[in-house]
C-alpha cells in the first residue's frame, strides 16, 4: 500500500492525473478508482519510472490535523508489498517458498474461521509481505461474520478468477470459499480464459488446469482438496 499526501485543493473532490511524492522523488499516474474510506480515496497508481502498479491511498494534508493520525499514515508508507508484486517480479516462487507462504496463510485463515469470519476475497493482491517476509492478510472489504454455526451466506461477491462455485451458484456458502481461493492462488489463474462468462462456466463445473510447473505432491494435494470440498 502506497500513501500519497496532497495539498487541499479548492475543490477537494478533484484529484490530479499526475501525483508527486516529493520525499521519495517519485511521480505516479493516477488510474482507476478502487474505493474510499472515511478520509482517503484509493486509486491504482503507476510509477512513471518503472511502470510498477500500486494501490495508493490519497489523503488531503488538511485532514491530518491530529498528530497521531499523521504519524499513523506516515508509518504505513511502503511497509507492505503484496505477494502479487513478488510474483510479477520473480515470475514464480520455489516450492519451499510456496510452502512457507501457504503455512502462514493457513494459520491466518484458521484464525479467521475459528472466529467465524470468512474473508471471501483471498488473492495474491491481498496477501501482504512485510520486510521480514511475514505474510499478512489484507483487505477485509468483502469479509463477513457468521451469526451462528452452519449459517450459509448468499451474497454474490469476490474476484472472478478466485470465486468459488458455491458463490456463483448462489446456493449458500461458508468457510470453504476461502479454501477454494487459496487453491486458486498459483500465479496464473487456473480458470483464466478470454471470456468472463466462460470463466464462470468452468468454475461451476470445477474444471481446471494445473500448470506443469507445479510439482506432483502439490498437484495431488490440490486435486484432493478440490475433490473433497467441491465435488458436484
UniProtKB/TrEMBL annotation:
Segments forming domain Protein kinase: 1-232
GO cellular component, one term: spindle pole
UniProt xrefs under SUPFAM superfamilies: Protein kinase-like (PK-like)
SMART domains tied to this protein: S_TKc (SM00220)
Superkingdom to which the source organism belongs: Eukaryota
GO-annotated molecular function: ATP binding; protein serine/threonine kinase activity
GO biological process, one term: mitotic spindle organization
Name used for this protein in its record: Protein kinase domain-containing protein
